[in-house]
């Protein structure tokens, strides 16, 4: 059965799910619980949590978990916030237990190993065990992902919930370990239920209609892959769309053109990853995108030995916002007088083609010199691909001339190259030293009058040190 689940032949252990449902029903009968919460009925979610932690019986525990999750789903925002706050304080670590465990460890009675284990167990917040037990309910994993989505929506105004979110991430990182994920191809024969979600979740280049989706899935030079989890049977966690081409593309329009002429997969030399979309907001921060890219590269290389080049055609979502902030600063190290005049003309509705040199040079600075306080690039897409071991290969002026592309990046797109023989070395260089591995063409885009000033820290990049490009 486990091998069937991993291979994707069985999407979920249906017989086990049926047993859990039966346990929940019997548990409700034992506890005298109503099957559903009545409209207007107020239920203390924290008390349900305490009851769940106090139960030892399997059936009663599953029933309480199911009831708590259903009640949270039906609750209004004030009641949800109250429960999440109770997770932060009421279900935190048991301070008295920690004090006793520390005292026992310091006395070193019974051996250091057992006392250290006892201290570790005492220090674990009670909410972690509560979340684990909630996960046993039918549909518990999906419900907890939705619960964290609610938590994330409240986190900015309620920073006291950060510890709760940290525990969710800790547990989700184990539950959504790469070993549990199943890579499945998505094509035009995939179930309509999943295809509808691909349309809905596409976050980079919106899918306009079913014809648009078909154009991305059915031709022989198109591929799509997604990661699934056995507990989220019909919910893709992340998916990537791939175009098979004869050269590295510099614009997204031709790739998405419905009237384009498809080529045979065996004629292609290049695999282009042009859209990667995370689908579950509740799994933000649980990274499996790097595994997706690397496995798809391996699978494609095995299926089509004629493929020699693996690249992305990526958006630059933060470029325009960063550039506008730099333009407001008279002390910006990224902006000289010529660039300022060219960019100002664009903002006033001028011809963007006249600003090609300025935009390209500014983009090179953005990728190679603009840094977060951590020393990593400002651009989130760059951090993702460079962290995966890719190389910044090419800057594409007007690669995305759509309204969205013009707004977020003045139409700029970039190619990241995944060279199989250099991925690990590039990853190590980025992870250890923050090195942005870039092609000579990208480096040359930094004009001399910009590169000669690049050691001056920009007030909007918070650069604390010079990172090698």
From TrEMBL:
<dbReference type="InterPro" id="IPR042303">
    <property type="entry name" value="Malonyl_CoA_deC_C_sf"/>
</dbReference>
<dbReference type="InterPro" id="IPR035372">
    <property type="entry name" value="MCD_N"/>
</dbReference>
<protein>
    <submittedName>
        <fullName>Malonyl-CoA decarboxylase</fullName>
    </submittedName>
</protein>
<feature type="domain" description="Malonyl-CoA decarboxylase N-terminal">
    <location>
        <begin position="91"/>
        <end position="176"/>
    </location>
</feature>
<dbReference type="Pfam" id="PF05292">
    <property type="entry name" value="MCD"/>
</dbReference>
<dbReference type="InterPro" id="IPR038917">
    <property type="entry name" value="Malonyl_CoA_deC"/>
</dbReference>
<feature type="domain" description="Malonyl-CoA decarboxylase C-terminal">
    <location>
        <begin position="179"/>
        <end position="418"/>
    </location>
</feature>
<dbReference type="InterPro" id="IPR007956">
    <property type="entry name" value="Malonyl_CoA_deC_C"/>
</dbReference>
<dbReference type="InterPro" id="IPR038351">
    <property type="entry name" value="MCD_N_sf"/>
</dbReference>
<dbReference type="Pfam" id="PF17408">
    <property type="entry name" value="MCD_N"/>
</dbReference>
